[in-house]
Amino acid sequence: EIVLTQSPGTLSLSPGERATLSCRASQSISSSYLAWYQQKPGQAPRLLIYGASSRATGIPDRFSGSGSGTDFTLTISRLEPEDFAVFYCQQYLNSPRTFGQGTKVEIK
Amino acid sequence: EVQLVQSGAEVKKPGESLKISCKGSGYSFTSNWIGWVRQMPGKGLEWMGIIYPADSDTIYSPSFQGRVTISADKSISTAYLQWSSLKASDTAMYYCARDKGGGWYFDLWGRGTLVTVSS
Known about the structure:
The complex is a heterodimer.
Chain A: E1 4-7, E2 10-13, E3 19-25, E4 34-39, E5 46-50, E6 54-55, E7 63-68, E8 71-76, E9 85-91, E10 98-99, E11 103-107
Chain B: E1 3-6, E2 10-12, E3 18-25, E4 34-39, E5 45-52, E6 57-60, E7 69-73, E8 78-83, E9 92-99, E10 106-109, E11 113-117
């Protein structure tokens, strides 16, 4: 099973700042088999990024994904008030599919 | 509207059985895998398993194999998650979600079904 480790656990930032979230895999998942989700309190997760860097339908371009191998990054270029949430990465190279434990982006 | 509509919250006792549902609409239900994701209170997401409604091919995460059963009825565009004997540790929110592009990651989610198991 591929273990995904996200860091930091919590990121405290102000609106307008840049957020950089990390997802590290226990083994290589190539450059294509990683997705990112956003989950707000009381809501279902929402797909942001798939294929490590492709934005899902309707996702603003301030969200971007990068990385390959074992190290991946989700960047939010300028935080908007509605962006504060928990973010999860998910690998879909191997079964079982697995999620990271999440990074909370909170208002500073 | 393209959506997944999940059944309502459930309160059950340990040892009871339960079947929750997820109905797809606005798209061809048999064209995409449907997965289930668990979220225990205050915790992260766990990938449980997935079914292809067209032929009911089902894959389980080892962590959930033998503990739950995933099924589907394509005639009514509905997927199911069931337990034969609930435990208190099954208390969680359960989401169904539609696979995007065959990779078993999810582009459309239901709102979730909260299952509470308590004596």
